[in-house]
Structure formats: C-alpha cells, structure tokens
From TrEMBL:
Protein name, UniProt field: ATP-dependent NAD(P)H-hydrate dehydratase
Reactions accelerated catalytically: (6S)-NADHX + ATP = ADP + phosphate + NADH + H(+); (6S)-NADPHX + ATP = ADP + phosphate + NADPH + H(+)
Signal peptide: none
CDD domains in the record: YXKO-related
Listed PANTHER family: ATP-DEPENDENT (S)-NAD(P)H-HYDRATE DEHYDRATASE, ATP-DEPENDENT (S)-NAD(P)H-HYDRATE DEHYDRATASE FAMILY MEMBER
SUPFAM superfamilies per the UniProt record, alphabetical: Ribokinase-like
EC category name: lyase
Keyword Cytoplasm: no
Keyword GTP-binding in record: no
Length: 205
C-alpha cells in the first residue's frame, strides 16, 4: 500500500489547472483507498468543495484556527463558537463524515467525530514558519504506521487519532528542544534537526 502524504500545498494564486490537479490527486487517493494528509492550501480547496473529501475517513485535515473557521462555516453555516472549541472540532469532523481533524493551536485539538483528544505537550512560546510542514510530514509517517498496524495495535483506538496525537506531541517536543538551544532565533530547520532525539524521548524510552 503506497501512502500519499501532504501533496496539497500549492499557492492559491496559482492557476486553475493546479487546483484541478489537486482535485485529481484526492479523487485517485479515494479510489485506491490511500490515506491522505491535507494541509495549507489543500484546505482552501476543501472549503470550496467539501464534497471532495466528505465521508472519506482515511483523510486527515490539519487546519490552523483561520483555516478551521473557514471549513467550519462552509460545512455548518455558522461561525465558530469561541466558548466551545472542543465541540466545534467534534461537530466539524461529524459534518465531514467522521474524518480526522487536527486543529493546530496553543493546544492541538484532535477529533474523529466520536471523541476529542487534546495535545498540550510542552512546546515553547515561539512558533516557526514551516512548523506545520513538520507536523503534517510526521503525521503522514505515523498515520502510515498506525494504519498498517490497525486498531488491534492501537488499543482499539482509531489509528489516525493515535497517529495525530503522536505527531502533535513530536512536533511540540522538537519545538521545545530547539527553543532551548536557539531561543527566539529558532527556525523550523532547527526543529527538524531535533526529530531523532525527540522521537527517541517520546516513543523509544
């Protein structure tokens, strides 16, 4: 089984043909049953054409707050309730057919439409440009492993939910370690350099 990871990251200002290309990628992934992580401008495409991914439970969406708000309003025709973040993430996942949603933020909220997980693993006060790429890339790898392992190896939990929590934790751990070394000058590249030690600390000790 080949795994499609984070291909939906083009500039919205690009041509109509690029968006058609992205649509084709999603449609082929669905036909082949390939899990797919959708981030950045791929989320804009989904907000314009929700039916493209609705009901495909092997999709994982990783919106920031602004992207989440756009998706939420497109699907539920209401603004996000700032007093009920957990409920909003749950409802958006349900409205999209119980696919996995990872809302990135001060705390990452993760839902498959049945439950909401909160990742509040310690990071730092600095968020780098490109940090979302690290999250979606690591999520692709962990989702692949979890998908192949199946629920019997994830204590009966949705494998994509487990993978998302792991990827959020890993990204935050990388952020924490890099910030301790570089402080405010930390970049996403510094975070990437911490992946090995962060992974060992979280998952292999």
């Amino acid at each position: 089984l080949k795994f499609l990871v984070d291909l939906l990251r083009v500039n919205i200002a690009s041509t109509y043909s690029h968006l058609r290309f992205l649509q084709g990628i999603i449609e082929k992934a669905k036909v082949k049953g390939i899990p797919i992580v959708i981030d950045a401008d791929g989320l804009w495409l989904i907000s314009q054409q929700p039916s493209l991914i609705q009901g495909y439970q092997r999709a994982i969406l990783t919106p920031n707050y602004m992207e989440f708000s756009r998706l939420y309003e497109a699907m539920l025709r209401d603004p996000v309730d700032s007093n009920d973040h957990h409920g909003c993430v749950l409802r958006l996942s349900q409205a999209m057919g119980n696919l996995t949603i990872v809302q990135k933020g001060e705390r990452d909220l993760i839902s498959d439409g049945e439950k909401v997980l909160v990742c509040s693993h310690e990071g730092s006060s600095r968020r780098c440009g490109g940090q979302g790429d690290l999250l979606s890339g690591s999520l692709g790898v962990l989702a692949h492993w979890a998908f192949l392992a199946g629920p019997e190896k994830t204590n009966g939990q949705n494998p994509f939910l487990v993978a998302a929590f792991g990827a959020c934790s890993l990204t935050r751990q990388c952020n924490n370690q890099a910030f301790q070394k570089f402080g405010r000058s930390m970049t996403a590249s510094d975070m990437v350099s911490e992946v090995g030690t962060a992974f060992n600390k979280l998952f292999e000790t």
